[in-house]
Known about the structure:
By secondary structure, the chain is an alpha+beta fold. It has a single domain (18-160), classed as Nucleoside Triphosphate Pyrophosphohydrolase. It contains 3 helices and 9 strands. Strands 1, 4, 5, 6, 7 and 9 form a 6-stranded mixed β-sheet that branches. The chain has a 3-stranded antiparallel β-sheet with strand order 3-2-8, with no helix packed on it. The termini are far apart.
Amino acid sequence: MATPESADYITWIRQRVGTDLVFMNFAVGCVFDNRGRLLLQHRADDGQWGLPGGAMELGESVEEALVRELKEETGLTVTVDYLLGIYTKYQHTYPNGDRSQPIGIFFVCRADNPGELDESADPEETLALRFVALDQVPVMANQQYNDVIEDLKAGRRGVYR
């Protein structure tokens, strides 16, 4: 029998609780290139635009999860500049019916290698990647992301919602 230490944590927990509402811890990057443009990810799971990142695994720090997820989903290595905020009062239902209250820990990062953006890094998670000017970010279907964009535009740091 798989243990949480030997398997993908989300898969392991979902095998036990099904689609019930659970907390999910996410490390998410607000990744900027050297022109000050923000990286957006066209997500494969729901077809929406969002910010790249993903769930923490057991034994991993939030920074380790962030760096790993960004490399997997974008091909980029990043330098973490600062913690933007922690966004917690949201609910999300995935296309497969899984429900979560996402605890999003958002960091502002710089892409160390913006020319190496790799849209094929993980085709199961990413349909497309695009750097856009902050004032041209479209409204996203996910309220958590919209709040993050609003805070970035306002220059806020240390946000908690």
